[in-house]
């Protein structure tokens, strides 16, 4: 009896050792494949080159007295000279060098005529600077908002082309896994290029990755503040039901088109605007769909 029990104990011990060995082997395999999966899922843009450091002494004042391009909570943007060419220099206020480098790195990764070109940064001392190509008409910085107020473009073909070019720039941004999160008429400047008006989307300080954008919960007071002061922010973001997305960029773009239609009664653009500002994000058109509509002249 005792001998039989001892044999059973040895059998059980042996089976446990075999089971433990298999479990450890499976655990090592699982860890190995998990690491491989993590490497594949890691965003490519995490490996970023440091932006070029520009020597502050190489930035000179312009001869023109109208140096200030615009200003906001971030600081201000000035027209300056860099190595013999006119540039737009963003001066940051109360901002970390990491935030400046992130914005510079985002712009550097993008290559599209409707997006800005960056020369580099100055982050060795305050105020931190971001140096970009200057865009304007006859030497003056002109945003869509300013062009509308000043009646600088008159024809429907001109404005339709501006909307189309903006659509292509935003679609390119989305194809790179980015969302702008701050599209508005003051953040699109116009460039006179060989007699053709070309829009350029600026201000990439709030750009987010599509895959990592998070829902933000706002108090009722903050929600009301956003509805009054930041009308270009999509309602689902203000309510805290959705994170920023390509659809929220489409909503903001729809408001820009609506502003154009406020000054000019373009029925083709008005219909697109109505679709873009739909209250349900899933029912808004994609940027590619907007481009197709404009290209086919089917509106």
UniProtKB/TrEMBL annotation:
Ranges where the Protein kinase domain occurs: 63-299
Listed Pfam families: Pkinase
PANTHER family attached to this UniProt entry: MITOGEN-ACTIVATED PROTEIN KINASE KINASE KINASE 20, SERINE/THREONINE-PROTEIN KINASE TNNI3K-RELATED
Protein name from the UniProt record: Protein kinase domain-containing protein
Entry binding sites for ATP: 90
Database matches in SUPFAM superfamilies: Protein kinase-like (PK-like) (SSF56112)
Alphabetically ordered keywords of this record: ATP-binding, Kinase, Nucleotide-binding, Transferase
Organism: Exaiptasia diaphana (Tropical sea anemone)
């Amino acid at each position: 009896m005792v001998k039989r029990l001892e044999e059973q104990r040895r059998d059980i011990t042996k089976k446990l050792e075999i089971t433990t060995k298999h479990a450890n082997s499976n655990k090592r395999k699982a860890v190995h494949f998990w690491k491989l999966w993590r490497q594949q899922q890691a965003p490519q843009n995490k490996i970023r080159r440091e932006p070029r450091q520009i020597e502050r002494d190489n930035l000179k004042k312009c001869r023109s007295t109208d140096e200030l391009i615009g200003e906001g909570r971030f600081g201000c943007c000035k027209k300056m000279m860099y190595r013999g060419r006119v540039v737009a220099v963003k001066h940051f206020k109360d901002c970390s060098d990491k935030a400046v480098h992130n914005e510079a790195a985002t712009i550097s990764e993008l290559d599209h005529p409707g997006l800005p070109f960056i020369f580099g940064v100055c982050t060795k001392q305050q105020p931190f600077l971001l140096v970009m190509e200057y865009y304007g008409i006859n030497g003056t910085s002109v945003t869509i908002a300013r062009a509308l107020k000043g009646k600088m473009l008159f024809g429907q073909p001109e404005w339709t082309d501006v909307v189309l070019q903006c659509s292509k720039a935003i679609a390119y941004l989305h194809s790179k896994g980015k969302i702008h999160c701050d599209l508005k008429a003051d953040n699109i400047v116009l460039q006179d290029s060989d007699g053709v008006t070309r829009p350029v989307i600026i201000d990439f300080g709030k750009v987010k990755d599509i895959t990592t954008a998070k829902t933000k919960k706002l108090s009722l007071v903050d929600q009301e503040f956003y509805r009054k002061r930041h009308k270009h922010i999509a309602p689902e973001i203000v309510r805290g039901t959705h994170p920023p997305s390509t659809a929220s960029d489409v909503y903001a773009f729809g408001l820009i088109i609506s502003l154009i239609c406020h000054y000019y009664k373009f029925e083709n653009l008005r219909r697109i605007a109505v679709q873009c500002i739909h209250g349900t994000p899933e029912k808004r058109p994609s940027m590619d769909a907007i481009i197709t509509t404009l290209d086919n002249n089917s509106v």
